[in-house]
Amino acid sequence: MKLCSTFLLAALPCVSSALQLPLLDNFEISSDPFQNILGDLRSYIKSEDYKVTHYKAQDPSVWPLDLNQYEGYKILRFPINEDTKYALNELRASYAQWEANIEYIDLKVPEEDMSLLRSLDYEVIIEDLAQAVYETFPSLESQSFDPTEHDDFNVASDIFFKEYRPLKTIYAWLDMMKETFPDLVEIEWLGQTFEGRDMKALHLSAPTGLNPEKKTIVLTAGVHAREWISTSTVLWVMSQLLSNYGVKKAETEFLNKLDFLVVPVFNPDGYEYSWTDDRLWRKNRQETYVPRCFGIDIDHSFDYHWTRSEDYACGEFYSGETQFEAIEAENLNHYINITKGQHEIYGYLDFHSYTQKILYPYAYSCDELPRDIENLLELAYGLSKTIRLKSGKYYEVLPACKDRGVDILPGLGAGSSLDYMYHNRAHWAFQFKLRDTGSHGFLLPSKFIIPVGKEMYSAVKYFCEFILDPER
């Protein structure tokens, strides 16, 4: 692959290669006690919890997705500093970008290009991309899971959250929530996508007679198609709120005093495409001015300080040619406008992956401070502390502009839902970037769904408690 600048090959220092652990397959068990220890270690590593099934070409368990498209690719992390930031900004034009912030940039690079990058400092964070993609898909047995076949909601939940789920199963799950909790759940229709799929939201609330002046909290996930963990996390949060109502004091108070509008799959077309065609797809699927370039980055399509994030319509961060061009962004804006007289939007939580961060406004620029910055920071650090106490995981608190590296990559913070909701609607607004910090990236294995769900549920509870009693 031709690089966009010859400057890249000469201007940057040293290469650091990733640490490789030795394989244990060549060890044999013997009478030597040390060898027996090695054998036990080998058995442990290959136990059921750690065993990985390696994919085969055209494996039916992930049909119709073609895994061959990821063969030979790695994910590399390039540290950013003053000497390298401009060169790396050019490099991202040649390779698909996973993550970019003020500290590093993660890029998808074919193995044959590794020699071209020998003068760059980088770390290999995913060695085998095809295998990493394969490991996020559900088993053959669980692909046919239908939540409506289970009468017990808790039993269905235990099964549902063992794997990531396709769109049709998620929508069946939403219907099941409505049937199981008819007094607490309404399914809201936000509009249709470019490909004609419904955008669905769940409105969670106890009967309004208990508190007609309720404040509304909006939760969104799945804005970027490949970030499956965000959708599963929000579904977990909903299931816990509902199943604990009338059982636990906190959840009962939340639903009595607050409304929740939850959009678990904000980008239905993109999400479906990530299951059938490209697991790493980011944007929606609407047409652009370039015939074979599909998709607009929804999180660059909102109207607050909108600007074109990149000129190339095939680019992953393409914002369209005007604000609200992404149909999904306009659908949310329209829905909020026609329902704004019902309840005040008081809080907004937007779930993404990855890097374990809690971001606060503004994303478009670091030159503008949000209103009530001290109170916003108090809440953000409280959320981070709550997660740390729950799971031991550290979530860094940052302004969204710093995370997006707008001083290095101009335009990547413009038109975000975070800024739109905070400036126009919500008193409190945050974006969570979920696990992990790069070992799996967007391809977090399904065994982490429940652990991530639990730590985010603790954060949502803290958020609700703060809103109900900021002086506590």
From TrEMBL:
It comes from the Eukaryota. Pfam families: Peptidase_M14. SMART domains: Zn_pept (SM00631). Gene3D superfamilies: Zn peptidases. Coiled coil: none annotated. Keywords: Carboxypeptidase, Disulfide bond, Hydrolase, Metal-binding, Protease, Secreted, Signal, Zinc. Residues 1-18 form the signal peptide. GO terms for molecular function: metallocarboxypeptidase activity; zinc ion binding. GO terms for cellular component: extracellular region. GO terms for biological process: proteolysis. It is found in: Secreted. Residues 163-467 form the Peptidase M14 domain. PROSITE patterns: CARBOXYPEPT_ZN_1, PEPTIDASE_M14. InterPro entries: CARBOXYPEPT_ZN_1, Peptidase_M14. SUPFAM superfamilies: Zn-dependent exopeptidases. Its cofactor is Zn(2+). Inactive carboxypeptidase that may play a role in cell wall organization and biogenesis. Belongs to the peptidase M14 family. This is Inactive metallocarboxypeptidase ECM14. It comes from Cyberlindnera fabianii.
